[in-house]
Amino acid sequence: MLDLAVEAHDLARARTGKEIPGVRVEKEEHPYALVTTVQVETEEAERLMQKPKGTYITIESSALLENNRQIHQELIKLLGEKLSLLLKDLPETASALIVGLGNWHATPDALGPRTVDYTLVTRHLFHYAPQELRGGLREVSALAPGVLGTTGIETAEIIRGVVEKIKPDVVITIDALAARSVARIATSIQLADTGISPGSGIGNDRAGINRETMGVPVIAVGVPTVVHAAFIAQDAMERLWQELNQHPRLREVYKYLHPELVQRVIDQLLAPFGGRLMVTPKEIDTLVQNTARILAGGLAVALHPGMNPEEAYLYL
To answer: What residues make up the propeptide removed on maturation (predicted)?
Structure first.
């Protein structure tokens, strides 16, 4: 299953050779980003897309890779606006629990905990500070529960226990995703109102974190930090086929490169890793840190009515 809805939609269209019934796609162009909204509306679309019914908003921007404060402020503003759309049914007094999913000891999987590090938390102010210090803020708390391998506890169990105790009106999860294309690493932010299944992108499904399991709305925010090695190999072979097919003398070779043969070779190469070898850039530590700051800024803008993007960036 693909983590990104835009990739799942493209794959479903390629597989069926037609538009997917029950799926609506809208695109918006912004100065530094392209925003694609995919709405999965029917059970048939859910089956074909292999994504739960709901709204998926993807912000694509190569500027996420740049260390440009002005552009990052614009992206924080855009992210805040799109997050606010998913939170529009909540009152201004609603409280939120931000959950940073992932393993802080593994850099490609540390996006969630790093975002929690930068998050503006205010729940303690609502309990201990004077009223004048709460203006324009919502009650926000944050949690980085770790992973099953280091805690021995299912992540969903930890979150559910906290939710039952502090009773937030919404849970917002932050997680690293797996992409189909290397071009999407640290350049795409996906927002979804469907919740999340931690580890699903790398074939390691855990208990779902969604409205059904938590009892409150769950908004999922994710950024791709890894790509399956198999996808890179497949893309390389597809480009090779295109090159071979353009040269008359090499077309005979092209005829013998059947997809089944190529897939068998890829499977043999990845067999020592169980077919699940993941690839990430060598500068992933910097990318995760910068992206975490932008996500935390977007959360601050969306959750705190009195916060603007410039102020949010200062808190980072």
So the answer is: 1-3
